[in-house]
């Protein structure tokens, strides 16, 4: 397993590769000179996303989750750039309680790459795992053009 990080407007973001897949991402420091071609590609795509020239990612992701959590992660991946859904929306689609949807979002092993930041509560923003919590979520939503939802 190898890991590398990129500086972003939200602070350093790292990605981790194992074999031919990206298996995790998160917040914080990691090596800055990856020699893994997959990590180089992942960091380039993240840089393009944060730079405003890409709206998504084309990476082999392997989150290793099963059951409801895997279904939630798949549903998150289906939310288009610049759009949001509520925990309740996903609850109806997946036939699971909104609280379970929220827990699965909170356990997302690939934040940003699997866009859990696009899920809101019925009465507010909900949570977010990044340093700065909901402020980082607001930044991402504004970056994606979903800021009109926040006004």
Automatic annotation (TrEMBL):
Keywords: DNA damage, DNA repair, Methyltransferase, Transferase. GO terms for molecular function: methylated-DNA-[protein]-cysteine S-methyltransferase activity. Residues 4-62 form the Methylguanine DNA methyltransferase ribonuclease-like domain. One of its GO terms (biological process) is DNA repair. PROSITE patterns: MGMT. Pfam families: DNA_binding_1, Methyltransf_1N. Residues 69-146 form the Methylated-DNA-[protein]-cysteine S-methyltransferase DNA binding domain. It catalyses: a 4-O-methyl-thymidine in DNA + L-cysteinyl-[protein] = a thymidine in DNA + S-methyl-L-cysteinyl-[protein]; a 6-O-methyl-2'-deoxyguanosine in DNA + L-cysteinyl-[protein] = S-methyl-L-cysteinyl-[protein] + a 2'-deoxyguanosine in DNA. This is Methylated-DNA-[protein]-cysteine S-methyltransferase.
